[in-house]
Write a structure and sequence with these properties.
By secondary structure, the chain is α/β, with parallel strands linked by helices. It folds into 2 domains: 196 residues, Formyl transferase, N-terminal domain (Rossmann fold, 3-Layer(aba) Sandwich); 102 residues, Formyl transferase, C-terminal domain (Methionyl-tRNA Fmet Formyltransferase, Chain A, domain 2, Roll). Helix content is 25%, strand content 26%. The chain is built from 8 helices and 15 strands. The strands form 3 sheets. The protein has a 7-stranded mixed β-sheet with strand order 5-2-1-6-7-8-9. Helix 4 links the parallel strand 6 and strand 7. The radius of gyration is 23 Å and the shape is elongated.
Length: 321
């Protein structure tokens, strides 16, 4: 089959490579325009563009997939199938109608759960024990199309979003390869999503990054895991922002935290490990890695020594209301 691949971030690269090494012809790769990156704003190509360039595949970067010029260019290429993986733009019905065998998408969740832009983050933040990948036929909705194949992936208790992302990208690539081969053979299954089980995974906002220490210890740790490596969960210490990059549940309610306490208060410094912070359920979390504003990430022991962190210091915020 003649394939057009549409994708942008690192998550899509294993899928592109898998298809390039397969038996079908990838006639072009469509990705987002280059964007400024870093403090100096250097124009940087998306990871998918870099991977396609190394393979010598034609790359197209429309400012918008809604442009009529893009639809015409896609029509001229006569793709049998369009394959999308985290492309980052909604495709119009006129574009979906171009390929002879339709458009399919790889989504990083077990649909209909976590439809939307941040499915991996949301699954980790919510403390889910399992997530997965889904291939589906695309329609006009947001991740609402008929399911083709799915594969589950356990989320370990200490996994970060970055770690789940990498494993899911590899599993998804294999799932996508199987899907394309089934479509080519005319044997691809197809079942509608059960809308009553649908949940949303909206794009992260700045407000999502805030650590509220009056939450239970497990919820605080899940937020830290879910925001690692990007964008980072943050708190404040003496009016200065600090990202908490790694933390573990240290005490559960009733385990060593008897008596009055203040959520966000540093409880103890643990030599060679870090420091503990009290949480709203009477438990505490052990902070292992941090990143002060404007600084590089550092282990919590270095942070304690360099910033004079002592028991009794109270970190920033309690929840609204």
């Amino acid at each position: 089959m003649r394939l057009v691949f549409m994708g942008t971030p690192e998550f899509a690269v294993p899928s592109l490579i898998k298809l390039l090494n397969g038996s079908h012809q990838v006639v072009a790769v469509v990705t987002q325009p280059d964007r400024p990156k870093g403090r100096n704003g250097v124009m940087t190509p998306p990871p998918v563009k870099q991977a396609a360039g190394r393979a010598g595949v034609r790359v197209i970067q429309p400012a918008s997939a809604r442009e009529e010029a893009f639809r015409r260019e896609l029509t001229v290429m006569k793709p049998d199938l369009v394959v999308t993986v985290a492309y980052g733009q909604i495709l119009l019905p006129e574009v979906l109608a171009v390929p002879r065998m339709g458009c399919i998408n790889l989504h990083a969740s077990l649909l209909p759960m976590y439809r939307g832009a941040a499915p991996i983050h949301r699954a980790v933040i919510n403390g889910d024990p399992v997530t997965g990948a889904t291939t589906m036929y695309m329609d006009e909705g947001m991740d609402t199309g008929d399911i083709i194949l799915q594969a589950a992936l356990p989320i370990r208790p200490e996994d970060t979003t970055g770690e789940v992302h990498d494993r899911l990208a590899d599993i998804g690539a294999r799932l996508l390869e199987d899907t394309v081969n089934l479509i080519a053979a005319g044997h691809a299954p197809r079942r509608p999503q059960e809308g009553r089980y649908a949940t949303c995974a909206p794009r992260l906002t700045r407000a999502d990054e805030i650590i509220y220490w009056d939450k239970p210890a497990r919820e605080v740790v899940n937020l830290v895991r879910g925001m690692n490596p990007w964008p980072g969960a943050y708190t404040t210490a003496e009016n200065k922002e600090v990202k908490i990059l790694r933390a573990l549940v240290h005490d559960l309610p009733g385990q060593g935290n008897a008596g009055p306490f203040v959520p966000g208060e540093v409880r103890e410094i643990i030599r060679d490990r870090g420091f503990t912070v009290r949480t709203g359920d009477g438990g505490s979390v052990l902070v292992r890695e941090v990143q002060p504003s404007g600084k590089r990430p550092m282990d919590a022991v270095s942070f304690v020594n360099g910033y004079r962190i002592n028991p009794g210091l109270v970190f920033g915020r309690r929840g609204p209301g």
